[in-house]
Amino acid sequence: MKNLIPPLPRRVAIALALPVALIAAWWIGSADSQSFYFPPLQTILHTFGKLWFSSKALSNIVPSLWRFSVGYLAAALLGIAVGVPVGASRNLRNVLEPVLEFLRAIPPPVLVPVLILFAGLGNEMKALVIVFGCIWPVLLNTVAGVRALDEVLAETVRSYRIGALSRLWHFVLPGASPQIFTGLRQSLSIGIILMVVSEMFAARDGIGFVLVQYQRTFAIPEMWSGIILLGIIGIALSLIFRAIETWLLGWYHGLRQSQRAG
Amino acid sequence: MDRAVKPMLEVNGLRKVYEDASRTVEAIRDVSFSVGQGELVCIVGPSGAGKTTLLKCIAGLLAPTAGGVVVEGTPVAGPPPAMAVVFQEYGRSLFPWMTVHDNVALPLKQKKMPAERREELIRDALAAVDLKGVNGAYPWQLSGGMQQRVAIARAVAYEPHVLLMDEPFAAVDAQTRADLEDLIRVLWHRLRVTVLFVTHDIDESVYLGQRVLVMSHAPTVIMEDVAIDLPDDRTQLETRSMARFGQLRKHIYSQIQLAKQGWRPPSP
Q: I want to staple B61 with a disulfide (CB 3.0 to 4.6 A). Which of A74, A163, B56, B240 is the partner?
């Protein structure tokens, strides 16, 4: 078999080429910008260093990440917990499908005012908004993954009289895991968006909150630096996600590769 | 082995009709036979003879419409405890997220036994199918023949009294197939397990079996119960070139041809 994957240094170089070029273009293009709204990148980065490498910055980053983590993980657990029985039972699917389709069609941000009423302005409300937005991709992909479990494997599990808990842990969840991860990946970006949006509505801290503050006080370089920070957080979360996925779905990528080769 | 030994597996008046809203399909009309303890019986029939349906009913994976199956004196109402099934699609019956070792280990974890005993069974089973040094490999890293050996090892480690095999070698190449056939004869001799082997390959059924049950076209009945009076010590080269092998093969072949034309034995 030919080695189609280039060595690591080259892969890193390929991956970084375009971002470096874009940053360079921004840097050069904005170098002598006089525009109030589009300050030079140098100014933005200078502000970025001052603003986000201070202990005070943590008082905004930590709450945001905390809300995101709680909301995202709760959505993941809930989505899988509901998705497994729904995927396994046609009757349950027939009953729940219209309701799920309706709930899924509601844009999560519109729930912010509603949730404020009974969950208040605190972290619970923001986590709930994130849960409500992130649960659907996980839930629907889990349902699809459980439905598509291999029939022969299911019969193997039955014929060896493997118990319910072992069946769930050793067959259903790993079998559906490639699809579950597809859902989790979609939810990741939704979660970041909702984290920021929920903080823009009503909050006392958080990245979304300070972004709106900067915008309202015309602190333009600060505002831009906040947006860059969000981008970096997004990349970092996606790298963590990728590492977990590679670890848990190593078998799946190997299987796919062997099927393509064979 | 004497046919008079107590029956390990009895199929009595088994009938299976698939029904849904639009139509009913009679897959199996009336099948009765019995397999004695330690026997190796092959079921051969044309494609579409309901062989897999019959096997699933025997395995307790499918409820028959009428009649029933008795294993070791107990009527089958779900997968019986002392039975293992080897499926045709080895690629789909092994867990791709588990190593070879874990694939063989999983059914054993259901049986409460000390970990040392479990490891011993796994080691012996993998050695019995000539697989060594692949414990940590994933099934998809192995060839088709090796994957089917893993599935057989898993069944062997389970220590079944009855081993059902559903066209297990239909998807491997001819050379591998011959090796695996010999492996089944060896394991059968060594473990004294009762084997019911479903195949569409006439030569394979004659080479492997002590008896061959010839199935009709669906709705299935048994056309004939052929005793294979070949010497017990079989080798691919010698057994297959015996005159008697040819006669048996020819006889079963003509039965299958009749089956394909829709002929069926007069009902008793």
A: B56
